């Protein structure tokens, strides 16, 4: 039977939710309302004077060929990172769920990357795959692979996908492992008694029971790729070479911080927020139908 807490008045429940409400208002609603207000203004680079321009900033955003290029880059980058971070994490979780020698050390080592800041993760991967100084990048060139993420857009995108995937695998791994350990062993044993092999038991029993966890991680990973990979992009490629790794969130920074156009940057951030909200709503509307609770 489900246990519920009962309160005699409104004071204690309000005090309990007040910290979360304060964090949400201060760190989401206030910056979002500020961005919406700034998107209708034209400001000087120092923010000392402003002029109301209506939807002019939004028109300028959609007239830029660079914006559509950043949109395509974001789609490619987010698809690759979401796929590989979920697939690798699920593979590691299925192995960690087995009774292996040294399993605790294996789990601990897999969790460590989550504690690394995105910018630090980007610097680590840049050191490893630097074309002339990297411990892995230099041997690649010696072997004749012509590896240079500083000049080649494809190499730069590969390096970004690797570093962003490595940073997020730990998070997905923890949730997949918890989901696997919550599945009753008796259900899997019943499948084995019926003659189902390991692969068939995974796809017909384990994976459907993991679908709520997979759906949750899909939503979280999409949000991570759209917003939290900024530090990795800035540390690894800075949006280059020649803008080939400039995503939507990095273009918001580049136009606002480096370009000094705060109104245009605010309009892009509002559009990006709408895109992420729409993607999340679509996932809840269509993907959630296939989730088995």
Q: Treating each run of at least 4 consecutive H or I residues as one helix, how many helices?
A: 13
Order of helices and strands: HEEHHHHHHHHHHHH
Identify the CATH architecture: Orthogonal Bundle
Annotation, overall tally of beta strands: 2
Describe this structure in words.
The longest helix has 32 residues, at 65-96. The protein has a two-stranded antiparallel ribbon. It contains 13 helices and 2 strands. The chain has helices spanning 11-38, 56-63, 65-96, 103-111, 118-129, 137-142, 153-182, 185-193, 198-209, 211-228, 230-236, 248-258, 262-286; strands at residues 41-43, 50-52. It is 71% helix and 2% strand. Helix 1 crosses helix 13 and helix 8 runs antiparallel to helix 9. It has a single domain, classed as MetI-like fold, CATH 1.10.3720. With 293 residues, it is an all-alpha fold.
């Amino acid at each position: 039977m489900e246990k519920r807490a009962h309160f005699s008045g409104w004071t204690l429940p309000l005090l309990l939710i007040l910290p979360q409400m304060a964090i949400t208002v201060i760190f989401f609603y206030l910056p979002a309302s500020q961005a919406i207000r700034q998107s209708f203004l034209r400001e000087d680079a120092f923010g000392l004077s402003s002029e109301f321009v209506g939807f002019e900033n939004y028109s300028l955003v959609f007239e830029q060929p660079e914006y559509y290029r950043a949109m395509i880059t974001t789609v490619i980058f987010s698809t690759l990172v979401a796929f590989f971070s979920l697939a690798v994490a699920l593979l590691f979780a299925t192995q960690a769920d087995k009774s292996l020698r040294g399993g605790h050390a294996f789990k601990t080592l897999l969790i460590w990357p989550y504690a690394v800041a995105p910018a630090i993760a980007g610097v680590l991967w840049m050191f490893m795959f630097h074309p002339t100084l990297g411990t892995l990048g230099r041997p690649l060139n010696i072997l004749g692979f012509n590896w240079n993420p500083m000049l080649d857009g494809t190499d730069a995108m590969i390096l970004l996908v690797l570093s962003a995937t490595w940073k997020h695998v730990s998070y997905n791994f923890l949730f997949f492992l918890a989901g696997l350990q919550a599945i009753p062993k008796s259900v899997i044993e019943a499948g084995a008694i019926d003659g189902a092999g390991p692969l068939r038991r995974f796809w017909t029993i384990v994976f459907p029971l993991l679908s709520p966890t997979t759906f949750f991680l899909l939503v979280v990973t999409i949000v991570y790729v759209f917003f939290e990979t900024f530090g990795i992009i800035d540390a690894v490629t800075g949006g280059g070479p020649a803008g080939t790794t400039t995503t939507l969130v990095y273009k918001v920074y580049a136009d606002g911080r480096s370009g000094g156009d705060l109104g245009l940057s605010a309009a892009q951030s509002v559009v990006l927020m709408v895109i992420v909200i729409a993607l999340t709503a679509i996932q809840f509307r269509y993907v959630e139908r296939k989730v088995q609770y």
